[in-house]
């Protein structure tokens, strides 16, 4: 089986009827790039930069960050690299930063909310990213966006720092894309409006499921509610992809769901453009995508979205692909 998968390493990710998608890898540090390339990843769909901050005893400097981003971009050799700006808070804290005491940290001061408040931290990261942009194909994405105003505010700070660097004589790539994670239901429902301003979406199903079902993703006690195949979740995913495509933008997914073979059939049918997952899932996902017919999966996805429960969706999809 390992050998059979190996031949797919340099293959395209393309359905039987010729619809091509991108299969990318999720990384936490520059060292993880090797695993993505060895497993046939066509890009990095999520670089979780919080590890740069968590594995340090101080806020990483602009130069420290620049080196990390440059390394990833260079090693990916012109392939797309989606870097997520700092997503700290919730369950992820820093030893050198005091978070406010909150009843519900997952609903509180975290990610883009923190960055728009502490713009000094945010600006340092954006400058490092923009400086690194000349070493590859950089896509920057903001986590936990709930409102269009948050996206605009974050984008405005990005534009300011980009202009500052250009004024300082620093060279900056002209192909940087600036997008956002869709991991809050409010963003999914309003996706058509967001798509007018964002260059791309990446659906974060780990959080999108948690917030849609109001079920803590870390709690065993409510884990029965953690349902990727719940029709409510699938409908939000469809709204996100349709919203992007209406404005000519691309939609990816970087939550765990993107690497699930059963989900792949539905997501292909819904028109997802990029699937980003753990490196070790990429070849199996490619085998699945390459065995499917996109046109058929469009009908399958439509039917899947008509069911009332996650169990019905999963029973149906298993019968189709197994
Ligand atoms: C997600 O929420 O789906 C996601 C990819 O981000 P994280 O798991 O880091 O919250
Ligand atoms: Mg998330």
UniProtKB/TrEMBL annotation:
Its main location: cytoplasm. GO terms for cellular component: cytoplasm. The active site is at 254 (proton donor). Keywords: Coiled coil, Cytoplasm, Kinase, Magnesium, Metal-binding, Phosphotransferase system, Pyruvate, Sugar transport, Transferase, Transport. Phosphoenolpyruvate binds at residues 48, 84, 206-207, 217. Its cofactor is Mg(2+). The keyword Transport applies. Residues 4-292 form the PEP-utilising enzyme C-terminal domain. Mg(2+) binds at residues 183, 207. One of its GO terms (molecular function) is kinase activity. It catalyses: L-histidyl-[protein] + phosphoenolpyruvate = N(pros)-phospho-L-histidyl-[protein] + pyruvate. Signal peptide: none annotated. It is found in: Cytoplasm. GO terms for biological process: phosphoenolpyruvate-dependent sugar phosphotransferase system. Its EC number is 2.7.3.9. Belongs to the PEP-utilizing enzyme family. General (non sugar-specific) component of the phosphoenolpyruvate-dependent sugar phosphotransferase system (sugar PTS). This major carbohydrate active-transport system catalyzes the phosphorylation of incoming sugar substrates concomitantly with their translocation across the cell membrane. Enzyme I transfers the phosphoryl group from phosphoenolpyruvate (PEP) to the phosphoryl carrier protein (HPr). This is Phosphoenolpyruvate-protein phosphotransferase. The chain holds residues 246 to 567 of 567 of the full protein.
């Amino acid at each position: 089986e390992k050998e059979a998968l190996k031949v797919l390493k340099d293959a395209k990710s393309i359905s039987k009827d010729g619809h091509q998608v991108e299969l990318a890898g999720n990384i936490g540090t520059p060292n993880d790039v090797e695993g993505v390339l060895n497993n046939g990843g066509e890009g990095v769909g999520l670089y979780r930069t919080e590890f740069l901050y968590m594995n340090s005893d101080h806020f990483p400097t602009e130069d420290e960050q620049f080196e990390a981003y440059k390394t990833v971009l260079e090693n990916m050799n012109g392939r797309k690299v989606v870097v997520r700006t700092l997503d700290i808070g919730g369950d992820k804290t820093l030893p050198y930063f005091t978070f406010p005491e909150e009843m519900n940290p997952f609903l509180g001061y975290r990610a883009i909310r923190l960055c728009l408040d502490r713009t000094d931290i945010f600006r340092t990261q954006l400058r490092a990213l923009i400086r690194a942009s000349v070493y590859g194909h950089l896509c920057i994405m903001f986590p936990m966006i709930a409102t269009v105003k948050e996206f605009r505010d974050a984008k405005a700070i990005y534009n300011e720092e980009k202009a500052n660097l250009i004024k300082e004589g620093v060279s900056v790539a002209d192909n940087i894309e600036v997008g956002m994670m869709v991991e809050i239901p409010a963003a999914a429902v309003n996706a058509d409006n967001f798509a007018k301003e964002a260059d791309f979406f990446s659906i974060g199903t780990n959080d999108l499921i948690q917030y849609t079902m109001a079920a803590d993703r870390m709690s065993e006690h409510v884990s029965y509610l953690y349902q990727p195949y719940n029709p409510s979740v699938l409908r939000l995913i469809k709204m996100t992809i349709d919203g992007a495509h209406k404005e000519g933008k691309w939609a990816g997914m970087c939550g765990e769901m993107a690497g699930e073979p059963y989900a792949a059939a539905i997501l292909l049918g819904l028109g997802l453009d990029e699937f980003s997952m753990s490196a070790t899932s990429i070849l199996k996902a490619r085998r699945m995508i390459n065995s499917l017919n996109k046109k058929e999966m469009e009908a399958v996805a439509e039917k899947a979205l008509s069911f009332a429960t996650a169990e019905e969706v999963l029973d149906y999809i298993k019968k189709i692909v197994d």
